[in-house]
Amino acid sequence: xxxxKAIRDCDDRRLKTKYKNAIxxxxxxxxxxxxxxxxxxxxxxxDSTVLLHLLRAGYFLHQMEQGHSNGGLSDGxxxxxxxxxxxxxxxxxxxxxxxxxxxxxxxGVKLDIIREDFKSGLDALLKAKRTRAIFLGVRIGDxxxxxxxxxxxxxxxxxPFMRVNPILDWSYRDVWAFLLTCKVQYCGLYxxxxxxxxxxxxxxPNALLCIKDSAVEKQKFRPAYMLSDGxxxxxxxxxxxxxxxxxVPATSNGLKCxxxxxxxIQTASIVAVGxxxxxxxxxxxxxxxxxxxxxxIGWLVSQMATVRSEADSVAEEVERRKSxxxxxxxYGGVGPLHSDVTVGGVAKAFGVRLAPDEEYxxxxxxxxxxxxxxxxxxxxxxxxxxxxxLEHEKLPVPLIKCHNVIVxxxxxxxxLDLQWDALIDLRSTNLLASTGPFVSKHLTxxxxxxxxxKPLSKISIEFPDIYTGCYRxxxxxxxxxxxxxxxxxxxxAAMEALSKKLSSGVKQISV
Length: 511
Ligand SMILES: Cc1cc2nc3c(=O)[nH]c(=O)nc-3n(C[C@H](O)[C@H](O)[C@H](O)COP(=O)(O)O)c2cc1C
Ligand SMILES: Nc1ncnc2c1ncn2[C@@H]1O[C@H](COP(=O)(O)OP(=O)(O)OP(=O)(O)O)[C@@H](O)[C@H]1O
Ligand SMILES: [Mg+2]
Prior knowledge:
Layout: H1 2-9, H2 13-32, E1 38-41, H3 46-65, E2 83-87, H4 94-106, E3 111-114, H5 118-128, E4 133-135, E5 151-153, E6 162-164, H6 172-181, E7 210-211, E8 220-221, E9 266-273, H7 275-279, H8 286-296, E10 299-307, H9 311-322, E11 327-331, H10 342-349, E12 354-356, H11 358-368, H12 374-379, E13 381-383, E14 387-390, E15 399-402, E16 405-408, H13 413-425, E17 439-445, H14 449-462, E18 467-472, E19 479-485, H15 488-501, E20 506-509
Parallel strand pairs: 1-2, 1-4, 2-3, 4-6, 9-10, 9-11, 11-16
Antiparallel strand pairs: 5-6, 7-8, 12-13, 14-15, 15-16, 17-19, 17-20, 18-19
Helix pairs in contact: 2-3, 3-6, 9-10, 14-15
Residues 41-43, 45-48, 85-87, 136-138, 142, 196-197 line the site of adenosine-5'-triphosphate.
């Protein structure tokens, strides 16, 4: 088998180890699932090209182990036995598309073409054919790899199958070492400076490979394998635009909108991460405290959510909130433990990967001294290209800000106070500018909800800038009505009008 031979004959020890481990994962998958139950997701990209050849080798070696002396293939037989799916979209690069078809034809791969989005396509596939595991060319640097292992069940909300990622731990360099050592064909775009390929709408050649030659009019690029720092593999990929970005005037840096807002309403979302809160083992104290703090500076907290300690859950919530609020605060799940998935989830929400941050690492080594282990380095992995460190003399380690998402590391209210004071103090960033405090008026009444409903709704119509809210401490107790707004006179006028409407059973309380 030519791939296996090329690796055996080469003297790149690192590549040999990577190959051996990937083949091991493939063989375990083929032992766990029957050949009819597995599928390979192939799209002509460099990573899936690597995987195609690894699967060919892995299947061959698996067959040899099963006692087929020729790897189960009779002479001249070229049929690749694993069902192969390709999601073909109108925005695919024509070069990628033709490479996918041509490669499939060369290696006897029968392609199942799917022309739906990933989720619906997989749903239909699973309904039509029993598929328990899908091989993917996902690697650790990909935004989508956050939280994944070599065998990872599909995410909540996705059809159920096992994602098998044999090259998860391969670096950019490993991918090119493999393709060049095995002398296999790859898509021609990689020779034109493309280093990671999405769609024609979001991918350009990697500027780091640009050959600056003023004599030549058209820009030229070096081949992808010449990119020396694999962490910059995705530099030619545009950031994904959020589908709900219209809700607030979000800008590309997500923060311009927070600049000067005296009298206007700024909104914040709060996300707590922790299975313990959801199990009822501990009570979240930071959320309510943060609500009070934000309210005191005139911000509106539009949502407070608690999510599981799971990168996908964090990513989903942050993705939704970041485009609907001016700022998102997230806490819990920050650190080196297995359950500390918050920073990874934030990276995933923005479609970037985690990469080592030397400055942050420096802070951590000051803090932990020599006690650090490899885990400490993991803590210094931050969302690449979007992280700003918020430094303040009161903070031993800066806070992490990714566009409009702030990761708080506080574990109790005292620590939160400290971090809040630092954020307020960071005047240069104008992050948490006060938008003018809310003015609140409360009144209690012994009237029933039915009696109050109509007058109160009239007030909301007459005073559209005023928030009206009601609550009771018990079903039998009095009803407390709150009117709140930014303008003292309007709030007072609304309160007077309401008091008149509720002429009996009313007692105004001081604020
Ligand atoms: C076969 C297959 C299975 C996938 N399963 C999941 C999944 O379980 N969870 C998820 O969030 N995304 C899943 N995805 C989507 C990928 O994570 C990712 O969004 C996609 O490959 C696009 O990557 P790109 O943005 O790097 O081009 C799956 C994609 C494919 C092709
Ligand atoms: N349109 C698609 N059809 C089938 N599989 C896909 C598709 N898009 C992504 N995948 C799967 O997801 C994996 C990761 O995609 P990704 O774009 O990161 O890698 P790639 O396309 O192989 O290489 P590159 O990073 O250079 O684009 C692919 O290797 C493939 O297994
Ligand atoms: Mg790709």
